[in-house]
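Q: Could you predict the 3D structure of Germane superfamily lipoprotein, putative?
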Amino acid sequence: MRYLRSFILILVITALAACNSSERQPAKAEKPGSVKATKAFVKEFGPAPSVEKGTAYAFVIYFPSAKQPGKVLPFPFFSFDEASLKKVALAKLIGGLGDLKSYQGEIAQPFPAGARLLDLQQSGGSVTAVFSKELAAARTDLGLVNAVVLTLKQFEGVGQVALQVEGAPATTDKQAQKADESVVLPLAPPRLLSVTGMKEKGAATVEEVDAFFDRPVQIKELRLLDADGKPFEGEIFHSVFDMAGVLKPKNPAKFSAGLPVQVRWNVTDKIGRNSSGQTEMMLEVREH
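A: Sure. Here are the predicted structure tokens for Germane superfamily lipoprotein, putative:
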């Protein structure tokens, strides 16, 4: 199974098998993996993709829009750690999406530098998100409030959300309670995010080249070509969670950071939105 590695969230947990020293136990057939998706995920991105092993969780993080203040843009995320879903979702929301050229100028970053989530307190269906004091100046930003509230309310058992800044009382204001699906912007067709070569730490060459998209997609066509338009040789696979097309290159030594790579694609997301095109990107190389 090929693991999706970029800004997309994956927390890997390892199961340790117990053994009986006094007698040999017969091998048991391994259960197929499953993905449990929130209703918000299914609405925005369709049925969750499958995994070979374990239980994964698919959810949405709503990022504030830069073009339409108060509105939010949904992005898909995945995790294998059920216990920390809410905290991880808010941590990623605070951190933002980084420098994604495909969304340049579209995602706002209302969280001030140094702002962080200190605690999540839940009592019944009410959740209070406690932030560090750096958030005080941005506490009333409508996009920030809507993003926090909708990200948390998608999870089962959360009916009301309050925001609290360190050292101040919690407030369940009207602004937070008005956050609903009406502030979610409709999604455009899938977008190509980056082309990244992945290699083992310390390795001389890449082991795979990933063309990342902004959501799970079905790949109808994906070709990676050099600057002269000649296709790179190798097999193409889907990544785990269907977020990328993965080239297993026949000649991995050709791929180095900054290499111009032309990407030709034709993909469809799980709701039927189609995207096709060709563009050139500079190859990023990352170790894992």
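Q: Anything worth pointing out?
A: The domain at 192-287 is CATH 2.60.40.1220 (Immunoglobulin-like).
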